[in-house]
Amino acid sequence: MSTGYGTLWLALLLGSGNVPAMESPASRQIAVDQGVGPHTQKHHQEEPTGAHKGEQGHAEDSPPEVHLAPAQLRTLDLRTEILQPRVLGETLRAPGEVRLNAYATVRVAPRITAQVTARHARLGDRVAAGQPLVTLSSVGLAEAQGHLVVAEREWARVRELGAKVVSEGRYLEAQTTRQQARARVLAFGMTLDQVDELLRSGAAKADGTFSLLAPQAGTVVADDFLLGELVEPGRALFEVTDESVRWVEARMSAEEVARLAVGASAQVGYGGAWIEGRLTQIHHRIDEASRTQAVRLEVPDPAHRLHPGVFVDVVAQVGGGEPVLALPETAVLRSPDGDWQVFTTGDEAGAFRPAEVRLVRTAGGLAVIEGIAPGTEVVTHGAFFLAAELAKGGFDLHGH
Questions:
Q1: Which of 111, 215, 256, 326 is most buried, judging by how many CB atoms fall within 10 Å of its CB?
Q2: How many domains would you assign to the chain?
């Protein structure tokens, strides 16, 4: 009877659905094959979904990026440019020498024998146009100043009387004497403003003292004189030059110079850096000793890195050729694995990522590369710092 009651109880439970069905080995294998079951469910729970999953995929597929704050960008003076094909042509190399830009240099000298009484500028000073450089005293100028004061007063008296009162000859004599007296002090080196100040002050200022002024703004590059020295007319006391543009003179064979043209671009190498310049003049004489011909370049030098007498390397571009992708040599660096790389801008402001390239050749401070698409924005200045930050895993330029 107990067996009958047990059978009845089991039948009732199965009918109500409260007891799970027995799982056979065959049914368990089918469930696994269909992708359901305990192991599959656990796998679905651990798999990332949504944005997190996308971030993991991006981190695995994309190269690392360097992120810089605006303050860091300003500190590094980071510069970029859009990479575009350009024609470099063939290059000619020659040694060169930096020289003063004679068209932007003036010599300051007295026009009369005088003694130096005061110095107002020194070697290396930057001076403005019209700034006093040195004060001189001259006996000859004192005489000329006194003569001017007398002639000016006589002319004022005659002019007030008029030509109808005084004779025509006396009128012309007073006018001519006054003009000659003014011309004499101006020829001795006084300026119009100094002459006007002398005439306002009268004989008290006719002491032969005058100042030489800077004819232009620039830097004092020579001041070879002593205080108290008696200097002759034409003796250069100062040289003032505009250092923003330098001259570089290079010598090449006549055959090489024949391939150059005024206006052609050129690069000047000094101290591990290359500066863009332009060929402005070709000399028309051949040096008899070296059988070379000189060419002159104008090189902007706002940082004042080039100084007269310094020897440099000159690379001039000639001819045509196929367009190539070129960057400054400092923009192409070795990656940790030994390949060449440049840095391109990322998707966000201040983001930069390395891009592998092939270095074809270098010419005049430029590196010809391949393996990157034209139109890519690349870093031309500051790549070294980006590579250092990438290698170190990021560092704070300001030490914070």
A1: 326
A2: 4
CB of 96 closer than 8 Å to CB of 308? no
Q: How many C-beta atoms lie closer than 10 Å to residue 283's C-beta?
A: 14
Nearest to 136 by CA among 281, 237, 271, 50: 237
Residue 349 lies in domain: 66-87+323-392
Task: Say what the pTM is.
Answer: 0.56
The one-letter amino acid code at 294 reads A
The CA distance from 231 to 109, in Å, is 9
Are 195 and 124 part of one and the same domain? yes
| 57 within a domain of the structure (yes/no) | no
Among 317, 344, 367, the domain-final residue is 317
Task: State whether 290 and 376 are in the same domain.
Answer: no
Report DSSP state, residue 308: T
State the CB neighbour count (10 A cutoff) for residue 12. Answer: 11
Calculate the CA dihedral of residues 223, 225, 226, 229 and round it to 10 degrees: -150
CA–CA separation, 124 vs 113, rounded Å?
26
How far is the C-alpha of 204 from the C-alpha of 198, rounded, in Å? 8
Q: Please state, in angstroms and rounded to a whole number, the distance separating the CA atoms of residues 41 and 56.
A: 21
- Using CB atoms within 10 A of its CB, is residue 245 exposed (0-12), middle (13-18) or buried (19+)? middle
Find all residues with CB under 8 Å of 31, minimum gap 6, and list them. Answer: 37
Separation of alpha carbons 28 and 37, rounded Å: 8
Residues 137 and 232 occupy one common structural domain: yes
Examine the domain organization and report whether 71 and 166 are in the same domain.
Answer: no
- Per the CB < 8 A criterion, the answer to whether 64 and 288 are in contact is no
Instruction: Provide the residue-wise pLDDT of the chain in tens; the chain has 400 residues.
Output: 444 444 434 444 444 444 444 444 444 443 434 444 433 343 444 444 333 333 444 444 566 888 888 888 888 888 899 999 987 767 788 999 999 999 999 999 999 999 999 999 999 999 999 999 999 999 999 999 999 999 999 999 998 888 778 888 888 999 999 999 999 999 998 889 889 988 888 766 788 889 999 999 999 999 999 999 999 999 999 999 999 999 999 999 998 999 898 988 899 999 888 899 999 999 999 999 999 999 999 999 888 889 999 999 999 877 666 788 999 889 999 998 899 999 999 888 889 999 999 999 877 678 899 999 999 999 998 899 899 888 876 444 444 4
User: In angstroms, rounded to a whole number, what is the distance separating the alpha carbons of residues 324 and 282?
Assistant: 29
